[in-house]
Give the backbone structure.
Amino acid sequence: MLMKLNYKNEQSYSGFTLIEILIVMLIISIVAGIAVLSIGRSSYQTMNKFQSELVELLQFAQEEAILKSTVIMLTIEEDGLQFYHYQTNQTNEKKWIPSDDKILNRKPIPKEVVIQVKILSNQSESEDEDEDEKEHSQIIFSSNGSVTPFQLYIGKLGEKPRYFITMTEDGDITSKELS
């Protein structure tokens, strides 16, 4: 005789077990940790890359001024770097013209990077200097190889500078990472 069992009191449960929830939370925390670490590294890598490119640009500008027997000016503003050539136009008027060179063109400064410029000049600064003049710094590369001596500090907003670049009047450039 066959007996048929009927479970009328059978209950169906839906949901997740505690183990499943813990595994999902572990996976989420690992992914979040990797994301936070990559964001920090990305900011550091951006600053490092910018610093390296800036040193190369400064050296190139100095060499370009010597080779082409021209004067080149670099202005450093909050949002970017702009190179200019000192040229005589058609009316024999000498003026600064923004560079259209492939390398010495306008370069944006990454949002997370801040540059502090100190021009090392023997001239005393006038106290009644225009505010426009204070907003950006000018570095001149002359055709005889001399350069406006300066110091640059590169870092993140609200933090200590991470890199220090200095260039002497002779055109000797030094770059180092600060601790």
